[in-house]
Amino acid sequence: MLSTRHGVRPLGAADLNAFLELARRDPVVNAFVDYRAVTTNLEPRWLGGEMWGRFEGGQLVAACHVGANLVPVNAGPDDAVAFAERALARGRTVSTIVGPQEAVRVFWNGVASSWGRPREARWDQPHLVIAGEPQVAFDPEVRRTTSGDMAQLYPACVAMYTEEVGVSPEAGGGAELYRARVSQLVNRGWSFARFDRTGRLVFKAEVACATPYAAQIQGVWVPPDYRGQGLATAGMAAVVRAVRREIAPNVSLYVNEWNHPARAAYQKVGFRETARFATIMY
């Protein structure tokens, strides 16, 4: 039975194929939700939340991931309004709303009066993709990290997160969980870094999620005193090369519109904008 007049209900394992068909209409933009669906089988206990679907004539036409992150999937304006109405009925449980700009904007307009003031809203985030070889030379010193690198890697991850998000991932007792997340990426072979001759980490990046179609990069970071030396450009070329050869054919990320140095580095590597994202953080 559908739970609202708009045809929105939680999806489950029986809906997995229909959901993947929907998400893979835009497999690069939807890499995160595709990955989450496959790895959790849409089971709420593994999702840490729910995946909502909106149906028309019995067909799944849009979806919405509702965990720590709320992510609209192939959602037009009417879909985003319907998801916002369902979200209002249950109250805010998410810490971030992120996804294609227009869907996030419509959803936010529907919940803003009840969900309270966000800590920050980033409305213009270019979503970038590279589907070929890097256009600059790659840094041969960039490699996958190992558990033996954690003494350098973990503080760098904390510094990057704090600089990017505005709060430490260790705040509120989150250090153990965040360290486990970093270790998980290392163990999967999804963490890359370059170290100088003294052993100091001078570049890093991680694969946040991956499907057979695309991998999404996160956590690109160079220490402030090493910036401006081309480490991010050559480092990202190395990451793209490794990821495309061993993980997924398309490599994507999204970046803040105002981060001109990062955008310039990605453009040199060969990334091109394919969409605009927005992120609202509580």
Automatic annotation (TrEMBL):
MF terms in GO: acyltransferase activity
Regions annotated as coiled coil: none
Keyword line: Acyltransferase, Transferase
Residues annotated as domain N-acetyltransferase: 140-282
Uppermost EC category: transferase
Record Pfam families: Acetyltransf_1 (PF00583), DUF4081 (PF13312)
The keyword Acyltransferase is annotated on this UniProt entry: yes
Record-listed E.C. numbers: 2.3.1.-
Official protein name in the record: GNAT family N-acetyltransferase
